[in-house]
Fold this protein.
Amino acid sequence: MKNLSTVLFGFSMGLETGWTLIVMGGASSVLKLVLLWQLYRARLVERFAP
């Protein structure tokens, strides 16, 4: 939620001045989603491992 509001605030500032907020918020969101996906996969592998 915090990253989404940061990205939206960057867009409200305009691309010329808010591009850094857009890039940082987007990168942070992608990083968090990848980390959550990897943790979810690790739980699945652990659950179904022999």
Remarks:
- Residues 2-48 form one domain.
- DSSP finds two helices and no strands in the chain.
